[in-house]
Amino acid sequence: MTRKIIIDTDPGQDDAVAILLALASPELDVLGITAVAGNVPLPLTQKNARIVCELAGKPEVKVFAGCDAPLERPLVTAEYVHGKTGLDGPELPDPTMPLQEQHAVDFIIDTLRAEEPGTVTLCPLGPLTNIATAFQRAPDIVDRVAQIVLMGGAYFEVGNVTPAAEFNIYVDPQAADIVFKSGCDIVVMPLDVTHKALVTKPRNDAFRALGTKVGVAVAEMTDFFERFDREKYGSEGAPLHDPCVTAYLLRPELFSGRRVNVEVETQSELTMGMTVADWWGVTDRAPNALFIGDLDADGFFTLLTERLARL
Ligand code: BDR
Ligand code: CA
What is the sign of the dihedral through the CA atoms of 237, 296, 31 and 152? Predict the structure, then answer.
């Protein structure tokens, strides 16, 4: 049986790989890709989403543009990680497939209302602005969501954009707060796990050795994207944050975590956007998310490389 998903994203090289993995996987039915402002501003994220669909040879996928700024705070972007276009690395042609006219938030609302309750999974790979806006505008859709599998937050790794906060949650903490309090079934891929999904040299070579347009582009994207983390953390390669979301949908047994309470800091400027995860169960706050901590990295890269080869 295929699983219906909506990918909400701010591409981003790692978002691109997450999208490619989904489009290569027959188990997943990508109902639409909704772009949000994040790594780069919205005009670039919606364009990049279309570039990636065309790279995958799937120009029929519907791409929608959503919110161009967080709910309450000014937009913070990450060109210092992803480059000026958000997708620096490979030379990819401008897309010719159309951008859908409907706003991404309306698409999310209409789709959740039209599909059988409990059949559509939301896959946020960027700031949670589109999802929170949809939940605020149409509270009736919240109970219809099958599951939310998102990349965001950190506990043991603490922050990447500030000492306390991970980028996706920091950019729109108010939106993240709405989502974490929604009551939906939530699976979180925090930095704690994504920093273990590293594109080492042999893994990058394996992408390139596919010899396909997709394989070479992914190798070039991860080459570019790795510079930043290599310098900052001294790590062996680029962390494939967002593809953890897609891989979890396909092979959840590759991942392990704990059901815990996760709350988002929305008040203190010092720790704004921090995901306070009760990993050790020291409060009586009810668990609201499965917080992933570890993965079988070799299994993850075997899956990813095998699937990319199909495109
Ligand atoms: C997250 O922020 C973005 O830079 C990446 O695409 C990923 O979604 C990691 O903190
Ligand atoms: Ca992202």
Answer: negative
**Which of 168, 191, 226, 292 to mutate to test ligand 1, by most ligand atoms within 8 A of the CB atom?**
168
Domain hosting 251: range is 3-308
Calculate ∠ Cα 251-255-257, nearest 5°. 140
| Residue of 8, 10, 40, 158 to mutate, ligand 1, most atoms within 8 A of C-beta | 10
Residue 125 near ligand 1, beta carbon < 6 Å? yes
Supply the CATH number for residue 36's domain.
3.90.245.10
What domain count does the chain have?
1
Residue spans of alpha helices (H) in 25-103: 42-55, 79-82
Q: Is the pLDDT of residue 117 over 90?
A: yes
What pLDDT, in 10s, does the model give residues 44-79? 999 999 999 999 999 999 999 999 999 999 999 999
- The pLDDT value recorded for residue 228 is 79
Question: What number of other Cβ atoms are within 10 A of residue 301's Cβ?
Answer: 22
Q: Is the CB of 241 under 6 A from ligand 1?
A: yes
Which bound ligand lies closest to the C-alpha atom of 169? Answer: 1
Pair of tokens at residue 211: 């010899």
Our answer on whether the CB atom of 150 is closer than 6 Å to any ligand 1 atom is: no
- Residue 181 Cα to ligand 1 midpoint, Å, equals 22
Reported pTM: 0.98
Spatial distance between the Cα atoms of 117 and 172, rounded to a whole number of angstroms: 27
| Residue whose C-alpha is closest to residue 5's, from 147, 175, 187, 151 | 147
Active site residue 241: yes
pLDDT higher than threshold 90 for residue 234: no
Q: Is the confidence at residue 232, as pLDDT, over 90?
A: no
The single residue listed with the structure tokens 């109970």 is: 143
Q: CA 5, CA 21: separation in Å to the nearest integer?
A: 13
Q: Residue 276 has which token pair?
A: 């306070």
